[in-house]
Amino acid sequence: MAYEALDFYDVDSLLSEEERMVRDMVRDWVDEEVIPNIEKACRDGVFPDEWRVALGEMGVLGAPLKGYGCPGLSYTAYGVICRELERGDSGLRSFASVQGSLAMYPIWDFGSEEQKNYYLPKMASGEWIGCFGLTEPDYGSNPGDMITKAEDKGDHYLLNGAKMWITNGSIAELAVVWAKLDGVIRGFIVEKNDPGFSAPEMKGKHSLKASVTSELVFQDCKIPKDRMLPSVKGLRGPFSCLNNARFGISWGALGSAQACFNSSKDYAMSRIQFDHPIASYQLVQNKLAWMLREITKGQLLAYHLAQKKDAGTWIPEHISLAKMNNVDIALEIARVARDIHGANGILDEYPIMRHMANLESVKTYEGTHDIHNLIIGRHITGIQAFTRNA
Amino acid sequence: MLNHQLVKLKHEIQFGQNRGINMNIAVLLKQVPDTTAKITISGGKVDANSVSKWSMSPYDEYALESGLQIKDKTGGNLIAITFGPERTKKMLTDAAAVGADTLVHISDEGVRNEKNSFYIDSTHIQKLLSAAIKKYEANVVLCGKQAADTNSGSTGPGVAELLDSACVTLVSEVNYLDGTFTALRPSNTGTEKVSVNGISVFAFDKGSSELRRPNVRGIMMAKKKVIESITSEDLGVDVGDLRVNLDSQTPPPEKAAGQKFEGAEHVPIVVLKLRNEANVI
Question: Are A297 and A305 in contact (CB under 8 A)?
Answer without folding.
Answer: no
